[in-house]
Design the sequence.
């Protein structure tokens, strides 16, 4: 069996998952390649099919024309040529909306070859005109065809082509004989079920985390931050946007009891002076070990996101034995129960603060349950085994349909 994976980059959360699946396939003796547009070759099995100049040109073209997802003709030709020569038995798609390719041309090729396709929906972009998420905008136009997009200016300077893009995505994704959608969360599966892809088979495979990296650790974080006598409320600022809860963090810090301190990780240096003095702002870290020690030192992790599929931050915190408080938004609450955290109503800052304060005082009661939840549900082995089993099933079915043996 030969498998190719597509993702915008080999870094970031989806790039990391692509790499983990690649490694698992290699260990099982499955030949595979990773195809991407951003960054450098991560390994011998990586192939970059777009240049920096092409990415910039296609991004500019998308901004001017509004045809987000339907430019990038030249990189798409490079990709298709690679696929023709490699002849994979299965194509795994992750995130492909970083000006990666022309959806019409790419899916036309997949239809012609009838190669099985597994498409993981890490966000909602696949069935909207423009946006990866619509919950913050409170928009439901994706159910009926988009148009008059409230977020259009984020994606196009001049033209709102959300309705046209929606229709072209629907056309591009229709007619694939062997398409299997995978979602990391039950919430995302529900969204797919209300979209134009409702008839396509869809299964839930939660993302996994490396439990050998993320575990309850002993660290010197409290001493380094001079917080030995205070409760640490941890926030991971992957984005300083309102949609990801940045302003909720600011209000949370103002409301926390005096013996609690908000430690916010991921704040750029130029933004730290803009934060209140009572927030400890730390830079973004690329070290998973440093992040593990921060999770472990914290008494509670708060994730006040207003748009999300299945936040990895929550899984990592649980693996380190630290309970989580989040909003009842998207798939964020799905990893939590009464023994591992709380999910409160969106925008209810009083409830968010109360839950954070309560859980921080009782961390020791939650630690073992948090770790067990991560071990039972979100190990990397469960993640890779589920995908590899799905690959084998789809390839086997394809061979049977074509009258040959696998």
Sequence:
């Amino acid at each position: 069996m030969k498998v190719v994976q597509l993702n915008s980059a080999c870094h970031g959360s989806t790039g990391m998952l692509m790499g983990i699946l690649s490694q698992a396939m290699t260990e099982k003796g499955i030949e595979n390649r990773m195809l991407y547009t951003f960054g450098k070759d991560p390994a011998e099995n990586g192939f970059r099919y777009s240049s920096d100049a092409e990415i910039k040109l296609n991004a500019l073209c998308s901004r001017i024309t509004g045809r987000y997802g339907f430019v990038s003709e030249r990189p798409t030709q490079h990709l298709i040529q690679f696929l023709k020569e490699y002849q994979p038995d299965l194509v795994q798609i992750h995130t492909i909306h970083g000006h990666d390719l022309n959806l019409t041309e790419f899916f036309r090729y997949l239809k012609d070859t009838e190669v099985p396709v597994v498409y993981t929906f890490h966000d909602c972009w696949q069935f909207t005109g423009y946006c990866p998420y619509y919950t913050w905008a409170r928009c439901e136009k994706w159910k009926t065809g988009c148009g008059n997009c409230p977020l259009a200016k984020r994606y196009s300077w001049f033209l709102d082509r959300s309705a046209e893009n929606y229709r072209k995505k629907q056309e591009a994704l229709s007619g694939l004989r062997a398409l299997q959608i995978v979602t990391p969360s039950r919430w995302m599966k529900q969204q797919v079920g209300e979209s134009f892809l409702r008839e396509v088979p869809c299964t839930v495979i939660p993302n996994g985390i490396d439990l050998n990296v993320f575990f309850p650790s002993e660290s010197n974080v409290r001493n380094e931050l001079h917080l030995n006598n205070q409760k640490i409320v941890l926030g991971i600022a992957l984005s300083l946007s309102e949609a990801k809860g940045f302003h909720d963090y600011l209000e949370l810090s103002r409301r926390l009891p005096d013996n609690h301190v908000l430690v916010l990780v991921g704040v750029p240096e130029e933004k730290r002076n803009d934060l209140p003095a009572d927030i400890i702002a730390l830079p973004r870290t690329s070290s998973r070990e440093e992040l593990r020690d921060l999770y472990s030192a914290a008494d509670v992790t708060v994730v006040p996101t207003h748009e999300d599929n299945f936040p990895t931050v929550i899984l990592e915190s649980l693996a380190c034995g630290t309970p989580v408080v989040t909003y009842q938004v998207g798939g964020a609450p799905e990893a939590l129960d009464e023994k591992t955290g709380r999910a409160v109503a969106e925008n209810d800052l009083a409830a968010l603060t109360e839950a954070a304060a309560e859980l921080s005082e009782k961390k020791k009661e939650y630690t073992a349950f948090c770790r067990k939840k991560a071990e039972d549900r979100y190990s990397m082995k469960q993640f890779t085994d589920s995908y590899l089993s799905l690959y084998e099933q789809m390839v086997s079915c394809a061979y049977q349909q074509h009258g040959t043996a696998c």
Summary: The chain has 15 helices and 13 strands. The longest strand covers residues 31-36. The two ends are 8 Å apart (CA to CA).
